[in-house]
């Protein structure tokens, strides 16, 4: 969990520093700081989108590998590890090529000017190169075993699960990426405020994503061995921990809202947009944390297609109409994030329904 939390905490610190950074002789320090946060936010949103989009390969590999270990299907384990390594190389190359090769078009989607895009080049290129190391680090851990045989059926199952989880990742991370584009089209102050909100939201998400990984790995082993009692016990404990994290963040954001806001920026325009969305950000954190823990549990029981369908339904029925209204009609950062909150609530409702099924299941076949 500490490793999961390190990235968003570092991003929070950088955002806070950029929100107050400017040259000593700068005639307009507030605008400079606003531009710094906006550029950083656009770059981070692009990198986060690509990393999240292809992260489903790791999730599928861990879930199916853990299930095979739980079921003691040792002959399929080497093949799953080898396929994961090959896909890691492919996806790291693809993500780097997209981010590095489409720098200007991707940043223009956030409403950045040519001068701001040029000023961000060094950091942007560094983030693009870092994606390669990120994927290789995530997906090659533990891949040390050679395979003696490849089972075609197992490979087909892996590909099928990958497509299901890939669809879920595509819908979810595209929705997150579109938030930044919609905010950028409002103005740079809105984009800067969006960056701060995103980092605070992602901080809770990443911490609880550590619980989700535990749920995926240990839960899949319980599911593979048909130990539903242990699976339910594990899920309950992780959900309680996740809810505790979300509630703690909610209390902190409410009790110290002014100091936290001023920690990230002193620009009044950015602060005004930040305040308009603050209560929505704070109120959603318990649900946000539970949704991530539920993700790990649903991956453990191999409910890949179910998760994809829930995100797709929420995207088309709630997120898409609201984000279009926010962009064309309402013109406010609050309404941009309201669209994402609606998608999160849809994911939460779908996860609750599947969790009720898990509580009633007597064996893995009932899922």
TrEMBL record:
It comes from the Eukaryota. It is a multi-pass membrane protein. Its main location: membrane. Keywords: Membrane, Transmembrane, Transmembrane helix. The chain crosses the membrane at residues 47-69, 81-102, 149-172, 238-258, 278-298, 310-328, 334-359. InterPro entries: DinF-like, MATE_fam. It is found in: Membrane. GO terms for molecular function: antiporter activity; transmembrane transporter activity; xenobiotic transmembrane transporter activity. GO terms for cellular component: membrane. The keyword Transmembrane applies. Belongs to the multi antimicrobial extrusion (MATE) (TC 2.A.66.1) family. PANTHER family: PROTEIN DETOXIFICATION 44, CHLOROPLASTIC (PTHR42893:SF46), PROTEIN DETOXIFICATION 44, CHLOROPLASTIC-RELATED (PTHR42893). This is MATE efflux family protein. It comes from Monosiga brevicollis (Choanoflagellate).
């Amino acid at each position: 969990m500490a490793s999961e939390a390190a990235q968003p905490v570092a991003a929070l610190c950088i955002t806070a520093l950029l929100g107050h950074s400017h040259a000593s002789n700068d005639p307009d320090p507030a605008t400079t700081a606003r531009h710094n946060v906006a550029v950083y936010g656009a770059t981070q949103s692009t990198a986060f989108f690509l990393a999240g989009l292809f992260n489903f390969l790791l999730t599928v590999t861990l879930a199916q590998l853990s299930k095979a270990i739980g079921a003691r299907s040792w002959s399929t384990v080497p093949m799953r590890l080898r396929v994961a390594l090959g896909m890691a190389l492919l996806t790291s190359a693809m993500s780097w090529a997209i981010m590095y090769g489409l720098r200007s078009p991707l940043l223009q989607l956030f409403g950045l000017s040519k001068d701001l895009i040029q000023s961000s080049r060094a950091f942007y290129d560094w983030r693009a190169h870092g994606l390669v190391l990120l994927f290789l680090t995530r997906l090659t851990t533990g891949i040390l075993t050679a395979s003696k045989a490849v089972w075609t059926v197992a490979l087909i199952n892996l590909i099928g699960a990958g497509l299901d989880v890939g669809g879920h990742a595509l819908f979810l991370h595209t929705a997150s990426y579109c938030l930044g584009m919609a905010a950028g089209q409002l103005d740079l102050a809105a984009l800067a405020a969006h960056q701060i909100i995103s980092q605070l939201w992602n901080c809770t998400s990443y911490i609880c994503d550590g619980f989700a990984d535990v749920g995926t790995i240990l839960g899949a082993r319980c599911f593979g061995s048909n130990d539903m009692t242990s699976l339910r016990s594990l899920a309950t404990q992780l959900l309680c921990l996740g809810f505790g994290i979300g509630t703690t963040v909610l209390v902190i954001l409410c009790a110290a809202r002014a100091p936290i806001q001023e920690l990230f920026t002193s620009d009044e325009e950015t602060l005004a947009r930040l305040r308009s969305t603050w209560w929505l950000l704070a109120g959603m954190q318990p649900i946000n944390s539970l949704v991530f823990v539920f993700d790990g549990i649903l991956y453990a029981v191999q409910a890949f297609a179910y998760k994809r369908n829930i995100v797709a339904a929420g995207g088309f029925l709630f997120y898409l109409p609201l984000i279009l209204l926010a962009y064309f009609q309402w013109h406010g950062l609050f309404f941009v994030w309201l669209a994402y909150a609606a998608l999160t609530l849809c994911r939460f409702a779908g996860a609750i329904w599947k969790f009720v099924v898990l509580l009633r299941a007597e064996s893995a076949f009932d899922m």
